[in-house]
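Possible regression after last week's pipeline update?

I re-ran a chain I had predicted before the update to compare outputs. Posting the input and the new output here so someone can diff against the archived version. Not blocking, just want to make sure nothing changed silently.
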Amino acid sequence: MLWFKKQINDKAIESVCDAIQPAEMQIELDADICRMKLQQLLDAAEEKGGISEFITALQNKQQMFAQVLDPDVIDQLNNEAIEALLDTVFTSRRKLPALLIQVPHEVLVSQIKDLLYGEDDMLKRMEQFVLMIDSDNRKAKRAAWDFAAELLHFSRPEIYPHMSRWVWDKKETTGALREFILGGDSMQEIPLGGSPEDFEASRVWFANQLGKQGFYRDIHYLIDLLLAQAYAEYLLSMSNGMGMFNAQFGAEDMQPLDFVVKLLGIDPPRKKGLTRLKKVVVH
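New output (post-update):
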């Protein structure tokens, strides 16, 4: 846990120690589905060097986030660093850049700082971050939420669950969590909430299931990979074969694990000087 090896200020200590209390889950996730999807993930990863390769990539991403978002240096956060972070957030990097340019830099840094170290409850901090985006575009708001979710999760993954919309979107009743509910594909309503406490409840459940399978290290990263694998499989099942999937993500032979890498922002970076952002933040 690199975070706890660092000397941090009192406000950061208070924020870190304020761990999320999991809510009581209102619907049961299925252990058999979890075991099946875990095995599918492990089998697919084995063909590409093993699951440890993907965990290492997530660790590298986390180290980058922790380095530039450390409370001792966050006031020095510049546009280049913000662009580097956003470039690893697949669901945000094409929708947010043009809107973030419109936010004064000092306001953006202040919002990121409040999101990570503010005194309000976490849900309110995330909602305030989204309100910073001056747009009525629903997709832009969703992208801002996902950026906030990844800033939290990858700054301190031991503390904050992954709360991106692809994990679970209460309003749309879609996301990876639905794939772990027996008969979830035919349910019109699913009683899963969208608060940080609800996300933490599901993460605790997954951690317990992985423990039963003998996994005790890097659990937060393995959960990320498992959820992303489930969501990738869902997208494939909804894409009428591979046509829509390939058209959207630009590969004729893309497999679920390939999209897992994209979704988690650990796909190889572009050549130096290039970016995957739709419009570069730096300006």
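Follow-up from reviewer: compared with the archived run. Residues 211 and 219 are 9 Å apart (CA to CA). Marking as no regression found.
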